[in-house]
Amino acid sequence: MLDIKRIRENPEEIIRRLNTRGKDFSYLRELLVKDEERRRIIAEVEDLKRKRNEASKLIGELKRKNQDATEIMKEVADFGDQIAALDAQLKKIEDEIEYTLLITPNLPHESVPVGKDETENVEIRKSMEPTKFDFQPKDHYELGLKNDILDFERAAKITGSRFVVYKGLGARLERALIAFMMDVHSKNGYKEIIPPYIVNRESMTATGQLPKFEEDAFKLTVNDWFLNPTAEVPTINLYRNEIIDFEDLPLNFCSYTMAFRSEAGSAGRDTRGLIRTHQFNKVELIKFSAPETSYEELEKMLNESELILKLLKIPYRVVALCTGDLGASMAKTYDIEVWLPGQNTYREIGSISNAEDYQARRGNIRMRREKGAKPEYVHTLNGSGLAVGRTWVAIVENYQQADGSIRIPDALVPYMGVEYIGREK
Known about the structure:
alpha+beta, BirA Bifunctional Protein, domain 2, 2 domains, 3-stranded mixed beta sheet, 17 strands
């Protein structure tokens, strides 16, 4: 969440920058009115407590002198009633302030291009030209059915629409990609993590999924738990309510999870195939960084995510998200978009983001520069390393052959044990 002191010091500038996200954030002026009232009540409560303490001392003196303290005792009781009423009023105002801060998105970094939506994102660079074929390429859905490596009908029977059963070498390709990604990132200094697939409300709130995006989450019927929507959630929460030693920063984690999203707001979009399923595998990169180096770490993370596609030799491009397309918790985001011949376009395969101290404030994740120093909030970064299912799609579509078989990228052959899917040899 945003620091209310920052809003208090320069409200109009904060509102102006937030408004570049395409919505009206003038409600923050009302937030500051409530903040003033909150501070007034706190001062009044402190004054009443001071008077009550003075009166209590006087009662003690009167009793020691065997004098009547009835009136003073009535005053003390009255002070208590006033304090209780003000405390209830204060709790209500503080809850309202906290809720407002929880639903207010992060402040876009000054380097983020201003734009209304994804059409105004800015291309940063490309790697390789789009794959060319001397035949009409198929999409991954057709190739998956032809080679009997995807089964959507039986998945729908088992569960429902937008689920899939990976079969044979299709299942092996998914498994190979997870191991390949984890191996590459581990060699680059990331510690492997396999966290729980179920997270609690505090974890979802800390990373910004709640309260704003609860409709897109799968909620369990017990313990106020949720199915994990991305490895970012459990991995960021490893250090919730903890203080990290400055010398240990940056902390780098490579986290594998199965992720679950109801995609409530995307009905009708990409419902065929693997692009937008309710359950998918994901390898995520997470960093906890000192504030002064977090943007340097962001560029490193981007390069490390790109490395996966470079090793697989798949065409892609990097775009900087504009303010209107920026995720609510993020101050800056790069998207990596992979070329999909079956759609004849680039599609997102990963996002690399810096949340600055937005998530750290929500989750109370801090660092201490030296012994005895005041704790400071860290910066949190997360990036796809990559979305496994979409990487599967990119390989199948870019490496398809004229006979409908799929060549395995050289970097994956040791993990697969075969060079082709859909050929005898």
